[in-house]
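To whoever is covering the structure queue this week,

Two jobs came back overnight. Logging them here so there's a record in the thread.

Job A:
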Amino acid sequence: MKRAAAWRRAGRALLLGLAVVAVVTSPARAQSRDERAVRAAYLYNLIKYVGWPAQGKDLIVAFAGDAPTSDVIGQLLNGRASDGQTIRVVQPASSEELERCSVLYVSGASESDIRKILEKVKGRSVLTVGENDAFVQAGGMVALVNTGDHIRIEVNLEAAQSVGIRISSRVLGLATIVRSAGKGGN
């Protein structure tokens, strides 16, 4: 039974990987779609290596910002499983969904907007993920930063630890650790 479940999980992960490769290598796709698919793969793998103080049956990924990014991530992750939880992507996130989310993904927001968005989940065990250097400096937890030829991971470990979120050493070994500019946030 356990072996069969492990094979099913491995099969799902392989299918997700193949879907990402198909999107990334398709010449008919736009470069921005490719980048969004890569971000989806990073997000899916990141979720596997994060621990929350309390976990429910569903792992809700809420979005703030850029709709095309949320569309691609939604297509690739919605309904997938991670560590016994079903990933449910909500786009755009309502206030109620923000209250129940485990991950808040912020895309295409200015630094002032990032701070306003992070205020909505401040003090709660919500993994916050963004797309630029300003995100972790503003108090976000993880930034998936485009450096031209690859995505670099930046982590604000203080922001994560302050709300009880544990990020695996496997992720931290690949990441650049960054501190918030000014007072800590979420």
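Job B:
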Amino acid sequence: MERLLCPVRNCGLPLVRDGRRYVCAKAHSFDLSRSGYLNLLQPQDRRSKDPGDSAGAVAARRRLHERGITAPLCEGIWAFAAPRQDDVILDAGCGEGFYLGAAMPGAERYGVDISLPAIDAAAKKYPGCHWIVANADRQIPFQAGSVSLVVSITARMNEAEFARVLAPQGRLVIAIPSPDDLIELRGRGRERVARTVESFQSMFELTGQSRVATTAVLDVSGVEDILLSIYRPMQQEPAIAKDVTFSLDLLSFRRK
């Protein structure tokens, strides 16, 4: 895992593993947690005491995944991304790790998220991946050109950093909510594809586009978990069973 950079301000030297810690040439040191993740988040990279998803939101999202509701989305994302055995995959904004945990098992897989509860949950559930707490909105703590596939699944996007960490001919796959995503709970959303493509056009070339969708019948607790995971209160209690649409637009890019 010698692809990482020291996050200390004005350092940025490569990190090298030494037992259960990572150190740089300036002796900045970062220990692996008991559950196996690496916390590289620096004080200047957080906007609050507990940034990112809360423990409650992480648990709600995990319950939805464990119901099998999002399995069709996961299958569709990876069929579209087409990862290879020799890929180095980075999931930027990985949350509690569900999607990366299902990616190509033989590939080298890294998940980065600013939420410590999310990364801790990911490390405990998916020990076959590398999990890192960091603020990818500012700087991804990876060496330039060290990743062959970056995925961003309903997460914030950092075009410049995606381009920097990707190897030449590296691929980028983005999943964004389509206008019909959760339409039964929050109404029709906005169309995001054109704006997303435009924001990436200076550094990336669009190579593919698709949509993956599924519908699940959810009880009250399932709807509550959805709303908790997206930080929306329940306005009124739904019927015992409610059809809910999950829909993502998928975009693939290559570095120019």
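Note for Job B: The CA atoms of residues 202 and 256 lie 8 Å apart.

Please reply-all if you pick these up so we don't duplicate work.
Q.
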